[in-house]
Amino acid sequence: MPGEVFSTAGLKLELEEKPEETIVYCSGRIVAESAEWFQNEIRDRIIPLSRGRGVAVTSRIVLDLSKVSFIDSTGLGSLLTVWTAAQRRSCDMEIINPGARVEQLLSVTKLDQVFTKMKNLFGGNHSK
C-alpha cells in the first residue's frame, strides 16, 4: 500500500517502500513544469546517498508510469537524469507499466533500450 505522497503542478508521486526496494507510483504529466521537481524528489528522497552499514537501504527503484498521461522532451530528460543518478549510486531503476503513448515515446527515442522496462514484475504485485 502506498505511503508518502508528494505532488506539484500536474504530477503526483506516491511511495511504497519495501525492504531494499521503493516503488514510485507516478500520476499525471512529466513535463517542463514538473520535471525539475520530479528529478529532485527522486534524487533527494529516494535514491540512497550511501549504502548503509547493516541498514536496509533502497537498492532498487521501480517507477510505475501506468497513470502518466504525457511526457515531453524535458520529462524524458528528467527520467534519464534520475536513471543516471541511480546508476551512480549502485541503485537499479526500472520503469514498469507505461501506457501506450508513453511506451511509444520511449520506443521512438530508443530510451526503452536504456531503461530496464518491464510490463509486470513479480506476477503483478506492483500494480495498485
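The record above closes out task 2.4. Task 2.5 opens with a second protein, given below.
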Amino acid sequence: MTLENIQDTGFEPPRLVVYGPPKIGKSTMASKFEAPIFQRTEDGLTALKAKAFPKAENFQEVLENVTSLCENDHDFKTYVLDSADHLEPLIWKQVCEESGVNSIELANGGYGKGYVSALNMWREYMDALDYLRIHVFAPHVER
C-alpha cells in the first residue's frame, strides 16, 4: 500500500444520549453544540437562551417538528430532544388514545401489544431523525 491509496471516509453526525440527574447541565451542554434546535417535551429550558420548538403536548407534534426540519431549509446543525424520558409518556398516551384505553398495559388488547405499538412509534421517530441527518442529542434524566 502507498499513500496514493488513502481515501476519505464518510461521516454521519453522531447521536448522543446523556444520562444523569436533573440540573447537572445536560441541556446547557447541548446548547453549546453547533447551531442547536431544541424539541421540548418538558419545561427544562427556562434558564437557557436557545432556539426551541414549543413544548410538545403530544407525539404527533414532535413528529411534525422533525418533519418540518426534514422538508425545509434551515441553518440548524444539532437537534436536541429535551428530554427522551418525557417523550415516552407522550408516545404511550398516543398509543392509548388510538386504542381507546387509559393504560399502555391494556392497549391493543393487552398482553404487551401496547408496548409493541409504542416501540413502532419510537422507530418512526428514529427513522425521521435518520432522514434529518444532523447531530442528535437527547438528555435523559436519571430517576
